[in-house]
Amino acid sequence: MNYTTTSFALELFMSTTSKLLSLSILALLTACGGVRPYAALAIEDDAEQVSNVVVTDPDLYEVIRVGRAGVERVAGSDQIKVMVPIRNISGDTLQVRVQTSFLNLQKQPIGDETNQQVQILSPGMTVTHTVMSRTSAARDWTMRITPNN
Fold it and tell me: Rounded to two decimals, what is the model's pTM?
């Protein structure tokens, strides 16, 4: 083997090794991170997890609880109005961002989303987050709660 053949073989080995290492690290990070977002836990102990409300951060998931959502059609406009109680069960004041996406019957986005709205929750505090769809096309909804940092 001459110098150029050895150099080419070494470069090929290093390239393949770095790709495999990158894929291994990516797989490890994905496995450690769990499946996000997390279905929000309910305020009531006997209630099921609320699948329409998701929490995107594992630390926030531990300290946020949500109550039973109230959903109604607005008379005249046929828009959807959603009201969700959100509670801070930690001993610290939390700032969260809440965004709601309105969906069709197949649970596909229809382009009707609220802005990310900041809620400040003192320890033990519950706020009712209320939003309304822009159009009557909304048939379902998903609310995302993320940290405001």
Answer: 0.74
